Amino acid sequence: MAKRSPRLAARALILIEDRLLLVNAYPGCISDLWCAPGGGTEAGSSLPANLAREVMEETGLTVAVGEPALVNEFHDPRTGFHQVDLFFRCSVIAGSLDAGWRDPEGVVTERGLFTRGDLDLGRIRFKPDSLAQAAWGRGCHYDPLEVLVK
Question: Which domain does 128 fall in, by range?
């Protein structure tokens, strides 16, 4: 298998009334795995600009991008896929979660707000493992290379 450069993505940690906004980014809900909104970066656009665009597409919300909170890496040893996710603490500056909203690209099929207990007690399946620590903690964390989970 040929070595490929890692893909770079930006993700948002958005707390709304002390609940973390997560998305299911699997068309047709083929997986029950939840993750922070965000996605791949485009060359020539800053990480905050990429993240604000992705959050708008996936949630319908306008956010202010704050400080970095987590660097996470994951890979698929079978295919050589490797992604580095940079998580930023964000705050909502416009919009609200609307039940009628649809992701224009059809990737995100569900959005949900989850408590720290939901994550800590395993009530939902999510990645990366250190998501709760980063969302409700302080500083910037590093979550070492994980194997891709679907």
Answer: 7-143
Where does residue 137 rank: exposed (0-12), middle (13-18), buried (19+ CB within 10 A)?
middle
What number of H helices and E strands is found in the chain?
A: 3, 9
Q: How many structural domains is the chain composed of?
A: 1
- From the list 34, 33, 37, 10, the residue with the least C-alpha distance to 92 is 37
Q: How far apart are CA 147 and CA 129, in angstroms?
A: 11
pLDDT of residue 103: 81
Biggest distance spanned by C-alpha atoms of the chain = 46
What is the token pair recorded at 63?
Answer: 């956010």
Tell me the pTM. 0.91
Say if residues 107 and 14 touch (Cβ distance below 8 Å): no
**Percent of the chain with pLDDT strictly greater than 70:** 93
**Cα–Cα distances in angstroms (integers) from residue 53 to residues 22, 62, 132, in the given order:** 16, 8, 23
Residue 50 domain-assigned (yes or no): yes
Q: State yes or no: cis peptide before 68, omega within 30 of 0.
A: no
CATH code, 101: 3.90.79.10
pLDDT in tens, 21-49: 999 876 665 678 899 999 999 999 999 99
